[in-house]
Write a structure and sequence with these properties.
By secondary structure, the protein is of the alpha/beta class. The chain folds into two domains: 141 residues, Aspartate Aminotransferase, domain 1 (Alpha-Beta Complex), CATH 3.90.1150.10; 219 residues, Aspartate Aminotransferase, domain 2. It is 42% helix and 15% strand. The chain contains 13 helices and twelve strands. Strands 2-8-7-6-5-3-4 form a seven-stranded mixed sheet, with helices on both faces. Strand 9 and strand 10 form a beta hairpin. Helix 3 packs antiparallel against helix 10 and helix 5 packs across helix 9. The longest helix is centred in the last third of the chain and has 22 residues. The mean pLDDT is 96. Bound molecules: 4'-deoxy-4'-aminopyridoxal-5'-phosphate. The site of 4'-deoxy-4'-aminopyridoxal-5'-phosphate has 13 residues, from helix 5.
Length: 392
């Protein structure tokens, strides 16, 4: 039987660029020891006070259908958080609770794109972006950023691509590059959105993990609150990837329509998870402690790879990864990553998994204990140096 063009088109045909990851998992399943520095998954579980709250809520009987837009108490907590970060008045009517940031990204594109609309995103990009846009019926258009600019998008590039587009998706702090967009960058983003009447979808799921500069939400910029949908999540900030708890914050009318969408898709997020989320947001120390681990490992990576022949570390300004420019080895990110997996059973993501702009780079997730990370990076550095010496 024929399936819909929409669902068959989600992947866009061809590979999803995650072969390295699947290979590493297959080796592990076959009993080999592989050190995985691939996905953005913490090496610890959800903090105890959050789990206690989840447990208590479930035992107290909160196991039935949830209210679709989210618990008022949680929507209030998210609204207060966004109001504080953006200086924009935010109420419950501006917040939809979603099953993770990913569902928020999909809802946001569904809310603003008609079939066939051009929806811009930046390259390199988080792996699901093009598929999310296609699933919403729109056409993804990648706008390249450059390693030499620290992967900050150029206003002129945005302006050139924005003609006739409907939406622009940005992500700061950025996965995979670790870039935290500067005020100047965000002024350029906002200018393109206002000039070309775009919706701005701002993926801020790493907003608690900032190592240099400060996180600025484009929603805070003049004339942007009315055209910005902020996507947030507890996955990264509170090690709650499996709980599926995120949100979209935006203009009331857009949120009301996304509640319609939630009614016919997710039908809300379990109440016991939402009550745990209220606890999580009420204890700022939890997110500070989680972020601290990645800050420490990011510094460790910088120290370990300093001066290494064959690669250059791009100092991450935020998020839980570092990018390595391995072009001096003469290999593509993909060839390097497969060779490293073959030789040392260390799995890192090829830059090419995240688009063309990250070709010749690797993304290393800082998701194993410090001593193992240090040893893996030392091995990787020796491997790159030997390749670079051969290439010279
Ligand atoms: N955006 C970015 C940039 C991400 O890296 C991720 C997860 N890796 C998500 C959104 C989605 O996260 P979740 O659905 O778990 O909230």
């Amino acid at each position: 039987m024929r399936l819909s063009r929409r669902i068959e088109g989600i992947t866009g045909g061809g590979s999803d660029g995650w072969e390295l990851f699947y290979r590493a998992r297959a080796l592990k399943a076959a009993g080999e020891e592989v050190l995985e520095l691939t996905v953005g998954e913490h090496d610890w579980t959800t903090p105890r006070p959050i789990l206690d709250a989840m447990h208590a809520a479930a035992l107290a009987g909160h196991t039935g259908y949830a209210v679709v837009p989210g618990l008022t108490e949680l929507r209030q907590a998210v609204a207060a958080r966004l109001a504080e970060r953006t200086g924009v008045a935010t109420g419950v009517e501006n917040v939809l609770i979603t099953p993770g940031g990913q569902a928020g990204l999909f809802a946001a594109h569904m809310a603003v794109c008609d079939p066939g609309d051009r929806a811009l995103h930046l390259d390199p990009y988080y792996a699901t972006y093009p598929g999310t846009i296609r699933a919403a019926g729109a056409t993804p258009v990648a706008v390249e950023t450059r390693p030499d600019d620290g992967f900050q998008p150029r206003a002129a590039d945005l302006d050139a691509a924005a003609q006739g587009a409907r939406a622009l998706l940005v992500n700061t702090p950025n996965n995979p590059t670790g870039a935290v967009y500067s005020r100047a960058t965000l002024d350029g983003v906002a200018e393109a959105a206002r000039t070309h009447d775009l919706w701005l979808i701002s993926d801020e799921v790493y907003d608690t993990q900032v190592w240099e500069g400060t996180h600025l939400s484009p929603r805070a910029l003049p004339g942007m609150a009315e055209r910005t949908l902020v996507v947030g999540s507890l996955s990264k900030s509170h090690a709650m990837t499996g709980s599926r708890l995120g949100w979209v914050v935006g203009p009331e009318e857009a949120i009301a329509r996304m509640i319609d969408l939630a009614t016919v898709t997710t039908y809300g997020v379990p109440t016991f998870i939402q009550q745990a989320a209220v606890t999580a947001l009420g204890q700022p120390a939890l997110e500070r402690e989680g972020a601290e681990v990645f800050r420490r490992r990011r510094d460790l990576a910088a120290r370990t790879l300093d001066g290494c022949e064959g690669l250059r570390l791009l100092p991450a300004q935020g998020a839980m990864y570092v990018m390595l420019d391995i072009r001096p080895t003469g290999l593509s990110g993909e060839a390097f990553a497969h060779a490293l997996l073959d030789a040392h059973r260390i799995a890192v993501m090829p830059g090419e998994s995240f688009g063309q702009a990250a070709a010749g780079h690797l993304r290393v997730a800082l998701t194993v204990a410090d001593d193992r990370l240090e040893a893996a990076l030392e091995t990787l550095a020796r491997f790159a140096a030997a390749l670079a010496a051969e290439a010279a």
